[in-house]
Amino acid sequence: MTSLPEDIEYEIFKLAAKYEHSKWVQFQKTNLLNLTLVAHRVNNWVRSITFRIAILGGIRPYKMFSNALYSLPPSFFSTSVTSLLILNSTPSSDAHRALELCTNAESLAYWNFTFCSPQTLIAALPLRRLAIPVGLFSRLCEVNATRFVHTLRELALIVTFPDEDIEEPKFGAFPSLTHFGINTVSIGSLVPKLVKAMLAVEQCQVLVLQGEYSTVIDDFAVDRRFVFYQNEIGFFREWKELEEDSRNGFWARAETEIAAR
Which domain of life is it from (predicted)? Predict the structure, then answer.
């Protein structure tokens, strides 16, 4: 390699890694592997950049992170992974290992139902942003000494069973929680209860509901903090775009809409 200052080298490979990784997750041909073969330090840079947002699932391209969980030293994950997305196709052993190793992840999207009791591991993370099934979050509220109780700012609940009977989550127990979201296939009886409880939180600044339209939604539209979006591109893609650039995420769009009212 031509000799360049290391900081300039890093910036060059940082841009290249981001570009190649964006192609990889879109199932396009990529030179990401070739970048890791340039030099040992470049290999370390590319891995850190690639897995800053780590996606774990049972399909390509997300198997790349699953394989890394068992081949890289545990210390790599605690220093490199800041955002973790665990899909429902993830084997329970992989989900457990990822939560156990990525101890400094500040953002977690958890759609996995094969690992039934992850709340203790999730509670140990310093989260600022969380997307999680509503029933699991309700159980998470019961865990003592939750590490993110004072840091959680953004919460999106996934409602798979619109008429599910669960204990109302204790939203007020998180004093920094200002941004709420709900993603649901239909409104049912649970969503109105969640919306009312979220809007009752004193520090609530915005609540985004994503789903199919129902006339019940009109009852909440009188609150200027409430924004409704119909599901168009899918919640996983929405969340991935939010992680890549929060300025283009659904909460940012909602804040712009609220400011214009």
Answer: Eukaryota
